[in-house]
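REVIEWER CHECKLIST
Item 1: Sequence provided? yes
Item 2: Single chain? yes
Item 3: Sequence as submitted:
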Amino acid sequence: MTSDNDPYLWLEDVTGEAALDWVRAHNAVTEAQLASGERFEEMQSDIREVLDTDARIPYVRRRGEYLYNFWRDGVNIRGLWRRTTLEQYQSENPEWDVLVDLDALAEAEGENWVWKGTQLLRPLRNRALISLSRGGADAAVVREFDIETRQFLDADGPQSGFYLPEAKTDIDWIDIDTVYVGTDTGEGSLTDSGYPRLAMRWKRGTPLSSAETIYAGESTDVAISASHDPTPGFERDFVTRSVDFYNSRRFQFTTDGELVLIDTPEDAGISIHREWLLIRTKSPWTVEGTEYATGTLLAARYDDYLAGSRDLTVVFEPDEHSSLDQYSWTRDHLILVILTDVRTTLRLLTPVENGWENQPFEGLPELTTIEILDTDPDVSNEYFLNSSGYTSPATLLHGVIGESEPSVVKSAPAFFDAENIVTQQFFATSVDGTQIPYFVVRTEGTQPGPTLLYGYGGFEVSMTPSYSGSIGRAWLTRGGTYVVANIRGGGEYGPGWHTQVVKAGRHKVHEDFAAVARDLVDRKIATPELLSAQGGSNGGLLMGIMLTKYPELFGAIVCQVPLLDMRRFHLLLAGASWMAEYGDPDNADEWSFISEYSPYQNISADASYPPILIATSTRDDRVHPAHARKMAARLEELGKPVLYFENIEGGHGGAADNAQLAYKSALTYEFLWQKLSGHAAT
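Item 4: Structure as written out by the authors:
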């Protein structure tokens, strides 16, 4: 199917009345079938309780002398931006200083505000640039907030606050009166992907139209951004040109206005901390006769490197089973999170006179996934780590390297009884012989029963074990088996686990997921009739492919905020930014392999498909809701078993608040229980 003969192009009109009438009509059918009965009400209530409970860990970020947190619960629906001290935070009932009450602000201004984030001015921490979205979209309004007076600053006057209307804006403080900004200023200011094409320096009290452009990218770039590093003694400015989703050119912007290229591989990840430059390779890199493997982390002295030196030190080198998942600086140390067959260990590295000390990070919980939540690299060696597993509730650890061992500062409660629930790891063999790990979480001794297989497989996103009270209550404790597939496309085994499946290699993602599905049946964990699959966004594309290419493997499919029409994905919203992942449909050679799997183009009138629930959000301005709408319409036209639900709010996450999220989640689980157990709501 091409754009010329697509009968459902009209559904691409996001807020068109005809399209929204279609949405409302389909929502009504879905809600009538799923959103009723005792089971649905129980699950919705259970999930809402998990989301709203005050017993959750209030995760914080250290910014100066305070710890900052954004908090939503059953009373504060839209949320509170607040702060406290470490001493208070370590107490059982901390006293919080509320800076912004978003519910009160939304009511006063008559806006459906959703919190999108904040940037504090460093090092003063007395001003913040706050991003607020209408209904949860990526596009946001940016407003300056005075923390001392607890007021948003007016946009007009000589001491006016920085204010930007709704757009996909990039902004960063330079000093209290100056910012770097990229935003929608009219024709030519955005890339084809809808992100800033211009990096500008904007002075307080002047119109945005007078801001100085310091760099202009091409319309085909993904985005241009500028940033300022205010670290005392290491103040520097940078410009990044994201040529595509994975390749960027980075420059230092000098005080005399010169752009100096930081000459690293364009696909490598880099970070600059004080005197150090870190380079993480995403493909093999040969420097002065030495080849560094994909996924290697290298260190160099930044000023020397910029001057031409290529004196590189390997601080992490991957092997067949291990990869670098995360790294973060404290003031004087580098913390590494390493995945070995999708299980985490931490190392502590310290630059010394003749190299780097490399030690194990002692005192951490075993058999859990550990991630770095926050460090304070400006001034201290403090860190916050989070530990959790499929059946282990989250534990927040705090410490200061060289001063105190990691200690538990907060623990989340158990939201479900996991006494008899076990976690196992298995490996499936994909078509090309690659071993694909996956985790199975189920009640010990369970016979084949309703099984939910989750997958993503893209953009180097790793699926590591983590705790979910919602899955526990709505699925595991009701007798369901939960499975997570660590398929290629993710980052579980480093960048190469991802790069081998971009563009023409995409079929390996689908083959891996199908291999896990078959392995579950071979191990008698599930049967095809009892096996379901779920994924969202890129994982939603995977679900569309499972439906159209592997329908015999599943009894039901849940496809959320998906890409599905791969003939037009690059023309819709942010789609052009993902051509480095999928390919360019307008290139005949690349369309030849995309067309093989594009779900919308591969629907067959003669095929027998399992029932599918397709869900999206009207306010998703990242993945266009038309993907989901058109797929559902075409399946419905051919008489295939499809249900459709679209949240009129919610952005790419599909929900704007906890109530919407609980409702949407309960619809999903009710659909699965009905289709896999054969029992409708009662």
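Item 5: Key structural point noted by reviewer: The longest strand covers residues 343-352.
Item 6: Recommendation: ____
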